[in-house]
Design brief:
heterodimer, A: alpha+beta, Alpha-Beta Plaits, 4-stranded antiparallel beta sheet, 4 strands, B: alpha/beta, Rossmann fold, 7 helices, 12 strands
């Protein structure tokens, strides 16, 4: 008589049970939405912070001055050597004439600069690094290149960026992990409450000879549906909230320097993460909740 | 067939519920298990259904040795049993038909098997007209009939009824017991736990009396509380 796996039955029981226990299902979905929104909002703040720090990092460069005795041709020849150094992402040669132009730019009204000759300055390279955390080691390597006379580098600023980014990432990760665990237990308790009303059904099934797997499957389906429903609702709610906050931040006075990452560019990833997390806490919560009632 | 050989049961709180119980119920028998509250009747039922394990001794239930049964095998052992409770334990949100199909689905029966078996069982208990009713729309006696139908629907070789008439008036109790007797006559072994002296005496079946965790008498058509009928 017994069949191994009746997917149709599990699906229909899972769906049916969601509507039969409508209020508890609603409560579970609300909890999933709330938990995902809190986690999502915090993650999005962290993403934007990381993005802004990334922008600032990208603007962080140091200057390698070329030995004064080198001709422009000799200086230009150093570029390939510099580009070979690991962690160097971009090398731009700046002649002393160009450097003077840059210096004068914005200071046109200062008559003292009119007679300044390019020879007072040195040829130089503007060097960008890929990873700001390795800036110190990169500077040492650049210093060893023949023809490099001196460096102008703001190591303290770079270390400041690193510190801020590490703290932001660390705090975000810890908070997200804590929220994920808290969410799992809240969902498990919500589903446990729903399961508590059905302990009699479970006891009857067990007394009739149902296997644990047979009893669990409809709950797994139910948890999965609730989790995915919560994830979808949280995804769209997050979208709305994010757009609203982004608009307010951009419109805000004095905050024009802040750049916001577009939700659309992250939407697919957010949807994927929400669905995976929703499914995980829905199914995990169901299994956690039903465990006790299976020991009949 | 059920066999209990030198079975002892001591609960975690130190209560010694059974003290060396020996009992044998052969296929097709009708047995009353009687005794006062706290005598060990419920412990015997729980041991037979695999809800709890014996502290000592051997148990055999319909070919399964419960002394060394694995957790995975317990559901299959339970499929050989049908259980009836004093408080019926029907699912209020399901109709009579759905309560029965729920029990059949629990062991993986197909929709075709449901359609074939449930009308037959409902007819057997006299409820073929009430298939679409909810438990709340039925009398106590009818609800117990549904519970009997549910116990019977998976065609078990043995039915265990735990105080099946405890919530019913004398007339309904008699009807239920008559129904159980009829089912027994069709070949299903019957173990009925009760403390209703009048019913036990009226049906004159085998009576196993238990008191203080020990079997004190085991007579056919015979004893209840030490008094010969």
């Amino acid at each position: 008589m017994a069949r191994k796996f009746d997917a149709g039955y599990y699906l229909s029981e899972g769906f049916h049970s969601i509507f039969t226990h409508g209020f508890m299902s609603f409560a579970a979905v609300c909890m999933i939405v709330a938990c995902l929104l809190i986690m999502g909002s915090f993650s999005l703040v962290a993403v934007n912070l990381d993005h802004m720090l990334g922008d600032l990092e990208a603007e962080n460069e140091f200057i390698a001055y070329v030995d004064d005795t080198y001709t422009e041709a000799q200086a230009r020849a150093m570029q390939s050597e510099l580009e070979k150094i690991s962690n160097v992402s971009k090398v731009t040669f700046v002649t002393r004439a160009q450097a003077l132009e840059d210096f004068k730019s914005g200071r046109e009204s200062n008559p003292l600069l009119d007679d300044l000759a390019p020879e007072v300055l040195r040829d130089r390279f503007r060097i960008h690094v890929a990873d700001i955390e390795q800036l110190s080691a990169t500077c040492e390597a650049v210093r060893l290149v023949e023809g490099v006379d001196d460096l102008s580098v703001a190591l303290e600023i770079a270390q400041g960026f690193i510190l801020v980014r590490n703290i932001a990432t660390g705090v975000a990760l810890v908070l997200i992990a804590i929220l994920a665990v808290v969410s799992l237990f809240i969902i498990a308790n919500t589903i446990k409450l729903a399961t508590f009303y059905r302990r009699e059904e479970i006891a009857i099934m067990k007394m009739c000879g149902a296997t644990n797997a047979f009893v669990q499957w409809p709950f797994v389906v139910e948890g999965l549906i609730l989790g995915l429903t919560g994830a979808l609702l949280a995804f769209f709610a997050q979208w709305g909230i994010y757009q609203l906050v982004a608009k307010l931040v951009i419109q805000g006075n004095g905050l024009s320097l802040i750049t916001i990452v577009g939700y659309e560019s992250m939407a697919r990833m957010i949807l994927l993460i929400f669905c995976a997390t929703g499914a995980l806490i829905g199914v995990g919560g169901s299994l956690l909740a039903i465990r006790k009632f299976l020991q009949v | 067939m059920v066999r209990l050989i030198d079975v002892y049961k001591e609960y975690d709180n130190g209560t010694k519920a059974l003290k060396g119980v020996n009992m044998r119920i052969d296929d097709g028998e009708f047995v009353f298990l009687v005794g006062p509250s706290g005598s060990g009747k419920s412990t015997v039922i729980k041991l037979i259904t695999g809800e709890i394990a014996a502290t000592e001794g051997r148990l055999m239930v319909n070919g399964y040795s419960l002394s060394n049964i694995s957790v995975r095998q317990i559901p299959y052992m339970r499929r050989t049993l049908g259980i009836i409770f004093q408080d019926f334990r029907l699912i209020e949100k399901k109709t009579v038909y759905e309560n029965l199909s729920f029990a059949m689905r629990a062991i993986g029966a197909s929709a075709r098997e449901l359609r074939r078996r449930i009308p037959y069982v409902l007819e057997l208990v006299g409820l073929e007209q009430k298939a679409d009713h909810y438990p709340g729309q039925l009398s106590g006696g009818e609800q117990q009939r549904v519970a009997i139908a549910r116990a019977l629907v998976n065609n078990p070789s043995m039915i265990i009824a735990d105080e099946p008439t405890g919530n019913l008036d004398p007339q309904r109790s008699l009807e239920i017991m008559t129904l159980l007797e009829r089912i027994n006559e069709l070949g299903t072994t019957m173990l009925v736990v009760t403390h209703e002296r009048a019913l036990v005496n009226r049906f004159a079946k085998r009576v196993v009396a238990i008191e203080n965790g020990r079997i004190i008498s085991d007579e056919t058509g015979g004893y209840y509380n030490g008094e010969k009928i």
